[in-house]
Amino acid sequence: MSDRTVTSADADAGAPATGSPSASTHVDAGDAGYSKDLKSRHINMIAIGGAIGTGLFLGAGGRLADAGPSLAIAYAVCGVFAFFVVRALGELVLYRPSSGAFVSYAREFMGEKGAYTAGWLYFLNWSTTCVADITAAATYAHFWSMFSDVPQWILALIALAVVLAANLISVKYFGETEFWFAIIKVAALLAFMLVGIFLLVTQQDVGGHQPGFATVADNGGIFPVGMLPMLLVIQGVVFAYASVELCGVAAGETANPAKVMPRAINSIMWRVGIFYVGSVVLLALLLPYTAYSGDESPFVTVMDELGVPGAAGVMNLVVLTAALSSLNAGLYSTARILRSMSMAGSAPRFTSRMNKGQVPYGGVLLTAAFGVAGVGLNYVMPGQAFEIVLNFASIGILGTWSMIMVCSLLFWRRAKEGKLARPSYQLPWAPYTQIVTICFLACVVVLMWWGGGVGRTTVMFLPLIAAALVGGWYVVRGRVQEIAAERERS
User: Fold this and answer.
1) CATH label of the domain that carries residue 274
2) Is residue 233 part of a domain?
3) For 18-36, what is each residue's pLDDT tens digit?
4) Does a structural domain hold residue 359?
5) H-helix or E-strand containing 373?
6) Is residue 383 very low, low, confident or very high in pLDDT (cuts 50, 70, 90)?
C-alpha cells in the first residue's frame, strides 16, 4: 500500500470541481469535536496579535544595535513576504477551513508524508518559540527591582505555568485572552508612536539627543555598519513575523470564516507597515542606534531616557504581555496541528485527546513539555537562551512557510488543470508569488550560514533535523497506513 493517505479528494481528483468554490471533498478527521466559539473580533485581534510579538518588542533592540536604521528596510521586505504567506494560507482557508490548517492542506495536496513534514516543522517552530517567549518574559520581569534577584529560570517556569493553565480551559477563553492581549499591545504601540511623533515635531531632547533625521545622519546614516549586517539580521526579523499564520489555524473554530478571514488577512499588510516599520523608524529617529541593546526592549530604552515617572515600567508590562500572548498562541496552534496529525497517525495518540472545554489538551501539554526544557536552558545559559532558540525557531518558521507556499502552488496547479476551483479570495500573481517567496526563504537559510555564529551552527543542524524527520516517518508509517486503510474501507 502507498504511504499516501487515500481520501475522497484523491478519488475525485480526475473530475472538475463543481458547486461552491470553497467546497472540498477532502475531510480532515482532526476537525471534528471543536466548538465554533471564536467571533469576528477574536479573529481580527488574533491576526493583529500574530503580527505584533516578542520579535518586535524584544528582538528589535538587538537588531537595531547590529544593523542601525536599515532594520526598517529588513522589516518592510520580510513583511511583504509574510503577507504573501498568510494570503496564500487565506486562499486555502476559504477553499476549505480546517483547524489542521496547512497540515491538512499538505495532506490533501502532498499526501501524508507532506502533512507529517509540515506538522513537525511547525512543532519545531513553536516548541522553540515557546522557549524564546518564556525567556523574554523572564528578561522583562528582571526590569523590576522586586524580581531582580529571582533566578531567570524560576521566572520562566512561572510564566509557562500561568499561560498553560489559561490555555487548557476553552477556546473561548483563549480567544478572549488573545483579544485583550492584542488590545494592550496595539494601544501601547499607538501611544508610543504618538509620543514619538510629538517629540519629533516639538524637537524635545530624548536623553540629551535631538530627535530627527540628524540623529540618523550624525550616526552613520541608514547603513552605519554597511549593508551586510542588515542582510544578516533578516533571520531574526523573520522570527518577528512567526505568528501571522495563526489566524489560519483559528479559522477552523469560527462560525463564518468566509466573511471573517479576508478582512483579517488584508489588514495585516498595513498593520505591518504601521507597527513594525513605523515603530523602527521612530526608534531610529529618537535615539542613536548605539543606545539600544538586546538586553532590553527598545521601547523601554526610550521611555527610560525620557525620564517620565513610571513610563518605562508601564511599557515593560506591555512587552511582558506580548511575550505571554505569543506563548499562549503557540500552545493553542500546535495543539490543533498535533491533533490533526494524531488523527492521521503521524503524532502521538494522546495529542488527539480533548477535554470538556473541547481543547486538545494532549498537544498543549506536549508543547509545554518543551517549554520545561527551555526552563532548563534558562538555568544553564541564561544569557544565550533567547538567541539560541531564536535561530532554531527560525528554521521551523522557514520550513512552515515553505510548506504553505508549496501547498498553495499545488493548489493553483490543480485549479489550472480544472480539478478544483479557486475561491474569489486569491493570492495575487500566482504562481510567481509562491516561487519568489520560496526563493526568498532559501536565501534566508544562506544568510544564516553566512552570518556565522549561532546561525551557522543552526544550519549545520539541518541534516540532523532531516534525519530525525526521516527516521520518525519510518516509526509512524505503519500506523499511518493502518488508519488510511480503515478510512478507505469505511
Assistant:
1) 1.20.1740.10
2) yes
3) 334 445 556 665 566 666 6
4) yes
5) helix 361-380
6) low
